[in-house]
Amino acid sequence: MSLSLQPRRNGNPTLTPARDDRPHGVSVIRNQILENDLLHVFVTVVDQGGFTAAARTLHRTQAAVSLQIKRLEDIIGVSLIMRPQRGFRLTPEGDLMLDYARRMLALNAEALRTLRAEETDCTVRLGTIDDYVANILPPLVGAFCRSHPRVNVELYGGMPSSMLTRIGAHFDIVIAMEPAGTSQGQVLRREPVVWTTSSEHNQHERSPLPLAVAPPGSMFRHWAIAALQQSGVPWRLAHVNSNVSGIEAAVRQGLGVGVFKASTIDDRLRRLDESDGFPRLPDVEIALYSIRSSPSSPTMRLRDYLVERLGDNSGSD
User: Residue 149: which of 172, 125, 127, 119 has the closest Cα?
Assistant: First the structure.
């Protein structure tokens, strides 16, 4: 018994038993696997417009190409190509098989790319906020690189808002800090933002209040100034630095009051709240963004590793 393609009621063809026109005694090949080489030859014949051109492309004889097409037809049990005296054209079954063949070859290529992703050296570009570059990510990235020695991770610090506009072109992964409730990435954690002063100085009691902040464009700078103005607290700029470590150093030395994520404050800084006359500030979310990639690619492996280690359920606070 052979199989033929018959239309379903919804218009899509399906393989169904058909009348066996083979001579008596000719057995039907069953339980065969559609080999990629046969599918490749079939697609090449179609794309090249004939057996002769396909043979040249495949560096095989025309007879070998014809034999492989015949073998594919024998495995399936239907004719794929009509062979008039001049040229050729696909049968309805051939049209359907062509779609399957292209998809199967594409899936085969994707599987090879995915499974071989770690066989060659590659680079993953990771951008994030300054305090993550300085304190949090180095030990995590170091551990990842030791377990993936052929993956090079480039770590960049800066303004994640600008990094997000360049994801894909200049960055593969970006860990950004955004106002709570606004992130469209993978939220890793939510953190309070707090006022801080030196544990050894009283700059928070001065008027106008000296501020140690980042340059214009900084979210924390904007929140701090807006909150002070709304509360009627006079202020002045005492220290402006684009690096969060520099701002922390200025606050520790008593140059001004700063605004930081609560998780970054050590015993050299003291938190200030409403009881000290400072208005409450909004929370932030730490969120991860990444390019689309196959699940086992180095980028996705690093992404999943960071989500596991930095997420709220990671116990890494």
Answer: 119
| Coil, strand or helix at 145 | helix
Q: Which residues contact 303 (CB under 8 A, 6 or more apart)?
A: 173, 288, 290
**What is the side-by-side strand order in the sheet with 258-261?**
258-261, 193-198, 269-272
Give the separation between CA 205 and CA 195, rounded to whole angstroms. 13
Residues 179 and 293 both lie in one domain? yes
Note down the domain range covering 206: 193-282
CB 285 within 8 A of CB 189: yes
Same domain, 15 and 100: yes
User: Which among 309, 311, 264, 304 has a CA at the least distance from the CA of 286?
Assistant: 311
Helix segments in the chain, DSSP class H: 36-48, 51-58, 62-76, 92-115, 130-131, 137-147, 160-164, 219-231, 244-252, 298-310
Number of domains in the chain: 3
Task: Report the predicted TM-score, pTM, of the whole model to 2 decimal places.
Answer: 0.58
Say if CB 171 and CB 125 are below 8 A apart: yes
Please write the tens of the pLDDT for every residue from 34-51. Answer: 899 999 999 999 988 888
| 226 and 84, same domain (yes or no) | no
